[in-house]
From TrEMBL:
One Pfam family linked to the record: Asparaginase_2
Organism: Fulvivirga kasyanovii
Protein origin, superkingdom: Bacteria
Regions that span the bilayer: none
Name of this protein: Isoaspartyl peptidase/L-asparaginase
CDD domains documented for this protein: Asparaginase_2
Length: 310
């Protein structure tokens, strides 16, 4: 058993400017981030599994309408909410993912249920809903996901072919995620999102795709991504960082900066990643103006949360 453990979380990246944020809203974001960190930290501190810690942290973020995941998910073109989530265990490389799910209160819980059975990794749409019912995952009425802010965002583009990021007045990529290293040396990662406002055709981003929006491997790192999903899918971002560590010998920080600050920029991709490696080093790397983020660990028991670049 090692003596180091760490948890990092994110609540999305993008053009997040202090000039557009009221003190009250900034405090609200920070409070939810701190609560998620404290919850996950409590599990790790007692010797709990990293998989449990990242799930618990993401549940807290999904339960807040401030973030585009779970309760805060944006409206689709049909006026519904389609969510996706994923979770991965670095010890076993087992993973679970769901996409195109509706009325699931906490999609990350459903993805964990998928991980825990051996036949599947990725379930979508009606099949995922059937599995949710059989697994006893909590479902809620559609109006649970309603918020005035999200509704107004949808109304602004409702009758057009345009899709929108989860804020109409700035470019924010609405995703939540967590990565952790536990006292047993095991890594885990989880990611969850409500996608893009006014999205059509069952569009799926990177958040639920293993290797693109999430990845965990005890030999290297655990990664959760937030950004423009199409670019992160093309770049296989989460696995790319792990590969640079495994095959090129790069540090977590160097690998993340290579992928986010160079490779994604050259593709045109905007966003960021959080990561933790097998020795407890962490990274919070983004090429956008800001990223809702936080970290807590054995070296610092007080949650540290940030929003803006500086």
């Amino acid at each position: 058993m090692n003596n180091n453990f760490v948890l990092a979380i994110h609540g999305g990246a993008g053009t997040i400017l202090k000039s557009k944020m009221t003190p009250e809203k900034e405090n609200a974001y920070k409070q939810v981030l701190e609560n998620a960190l404290t919850t996950g930290y409590g599990i790790l501190e007692k010797g709990g599994a990293s998989l449990d810690a990242v799930e618990a942290a993401v549940i807290l973020l999904e339960n807040s309408e401030l973030f585009n995941a779970g309760k805060g998910s944006v409206f689709t073109a049909e006026g519904t909410h389609e969510m996706e989530a994923s979770i991965m265990c670095g010890k076993t490389l087992n993973a679970g993912a769901v996409a195109g799910v509706k009325k699931i209160k906490n999609p990350v819980i459903l993805s964990r249920k998928v991980l825990e059975q051996q036949d599947y990794v990725y379930l979508a749409g009606e099949g995922a809903h059937l599995f949710a019912r059989e697994s006893g995952v909590e479902c809620v009425d559609e109006d649970y996901f309603y918020s005035e802010q999200r509704y107004e965002q949808w109304q602004a583009v409702k009758n057009s072919s345009k899709v929108m990021l989860d804020h109409s007045d700035d470019r924010k990529f609405g995703t939540v995620g967590a990565v952790a290293l536990d006292l047993h040396g095991n890594l885990a990662a989880a990611t969850s999102t409500g996608g893009l406002t006014n999205k059509k055709y069952g569009r799926v981003g990177d958040s639920s795709v293993i290797g693109a929006g999430v990845y965990a491997n005890n030999d290297t790192c655990a990664i959760s991504c937030t950004g423009y999903g199409e670019f992160f899918l093309r770049g296989v971002v989460a696995y790319d960082i792990s590969c640079l560590m495994e095959y090129k010998g790069l540090s977590l920080q160097a690998a993340a900066e290579k992928v986010i600050m160079e490779k994604q920029v050259s593709l045109g991709g905007e966003g960021g990643v959080i990561g933790v490696d097998k020795t407890g080093n962490h990274c919070l790397v983004f090429n956008s103006e800001g990223m809702y983020r936080g970290v807590v660990g054995a070296g610092n028991q007080v949650p540290a949360v940030s929003i803006y670049r500086n």
